[in-house]
Amino acid sequence: MHRRRFLVLALGVMAAGGCGPGSRMPTAGRLTVVAPAARGQGWDRAARALAMVLTGDQMARTVEVSNYPGGLGAAALGAFPAARGPFMREGRLLLTGMPMVAGAEIANAASVAESTTPLARLVGDWAALVVPDGSHLRAFEDFAAALRRDPAGLTVGGRMEGGSDHVLYGMIGKCLGVDTRLLDYAGYSNGIEAAQALHEGRVAALLGSARSFVPEIAAGRLRPLVVSSAERIDGIDAPTLMELDIRLEYTDWCGVLGPRGMSAEDRDAAVALCDRVDASSRWRAVCVANGWNRVYLSGDDFRQWLVTETGRTREVLNELGLLSTFSTSCWGSCVRRPYM
């Protein structure tokens, strides 16, 4: 069977220039980091970690985090104005990721790359596919066989429809050669609701952050079938998709955007600031503590990657039927049959 290769990450590192020994790096005045999530949810933790590093390493004098949850990042994107003054005096940064990219496509709005100034991709979070310990799906091969027999026969749960988990499910389905339009996905507002749906039998399997599943895997309540990383993950006894000849590596990435209309000088200053964050030992320690993978890419390289990734995401969303039917979806509230 022919399988197409999906490469979701193009890893790269761009070092800041002009930072020789003894050079004095500028300090930003007041910065605002806009998080497209409620406090304590999604990438809000990354926003607050970023603020802590910016002030702790004296890259900025003050940093405020503003939360705009809702609509796959649409609320945050809509509240992010065009550039108005010098970035280093009073700049604004917007955290972004796959959900915001998908949300803009679903809404038929300008793409994230077009409506902002892409600055850098910071970190990623690997995904895992899990089932309850008593599930009849003993391995990923069982899951794949069930999908090939009947693509609509299994309901897979995850975070919000159109978000990272849903897009990953579409990519897996396509790699398996099934009709992705028939895939049944139930989206929930957060991982807690999704996990509850799994334990109550409303979904057969769950896609989500691999690290978030570790406690229940260790307790024997969940069985991991596969992970989306390039290599196996400590604490999760499951193969990678690549090991199973599914040519797919996928992370729920988090990046930083600047306002649209930034001057070349402001853009360069903002990218240099992101470079300094990625090089910070404080930031790297935060990434390790939170289980985030550093997937740094900045400047023009990040912009080009984002344009390419947007096109790939648009293709998957279209094949899932979300570009024309998303407004009528039930957002996880539909009544579904239980799974044994």
Task: Indicate the percent of residues in helices.
Answer: 25-40%
Distance between the termini: 30 Å
pLDDT averaged residue by residue: 87
Query: What is the strand tally?
Result: 13
Placed side by side, the strands forming the largest sheet appear as 3-2-4-12-5-13
Domain unit count: 2
Indicate the radius of gyration in whole angstroms. 20 Å
Any idea what the CATH architecture of the largest domain is?
A: 3-Layer(aba) Sandwich
CATH superfamily of the largest domain: Bordetella uptake gene, domain 1
Give the amount of beta strand, in percent: 15-25%
Q: Please state the structural category.
A: alpha/beta
Could you outline the blueprint of secondary structure elements for this entry?
Elements: E1 6-7, E2 28-35, H1 44-56, E3 60-67, H2 74-78, H3 87-90, E4 91-97, H4 98-106, H5 112-115, E5 116-124, E6 127-132, H6 140-149, E7 155-159, H7 164-175, E8 184-188, H8 191-199, E9 205-209, H9 210-218, E10 222-227, E11 248-249, E12 254-259, H10 264-279, H11 281-290, E13 293-298, H12 299-319, H13 322-325
Parallel strand pairs: 1-11, 2-3, 2-4, 7-8, 7-9
Antiparallel strand pairs: 4-12, 5-12, 5-13, 6-9, 6-10
Family: Belongs to the UPF0065 (bug) family.
Protein name: Putative tricarboxylic transport membrane protein
InterPro entries: BUG (IPR005064), Bug_dom1 (IPR042100)
Explain this structure to me?
By secondary structure, the protein is α/β, with parallel strands linked by helices. It has two domains: 6-14 and 27-124 and 252-318, 3-Layer(aba) Sandwich (D-Maltodextrin-Binding Protein, domain 2); 127-250, Periplasmic binding protein-like II (D-Maltodextrin-Binding Protein, domain 2). The protein has 13 helices and 13 strands. It has helices spanning 44-56, 74-78, 87-90, 98-106, 112-115, 140-149, 164-175, 191-199, 210-218, 264-279, 281-290, 299-319, 322-325; strands spanning 6-7, 28-35, 60-67, 91-97, 116-124, 127-132, 155-159, 184-188, 205-209, 222-227, 248-249, 254-259, 293-298. The strands form three sheets. Strands 3-2-4-12-5-13 form a six-stranded mixed β-sheet. It has a five-stranded mixed β-sheet with strand order 8-7-9-6-10, sandwiched between helices. It has a two-stranded parallel ribbon with strand order 1-11. Strand 7 (155-159), helix 7 (164-175) and strand 8 (184-188) form a beta-alpha-beta unit. Helix 4 (98-106) crosses helix 12 (299-319). It is globular and about 60 Å long. The two termini are 30 Å apart. Mean pLDDT is 87; it is low at 1-23 and 325-340.
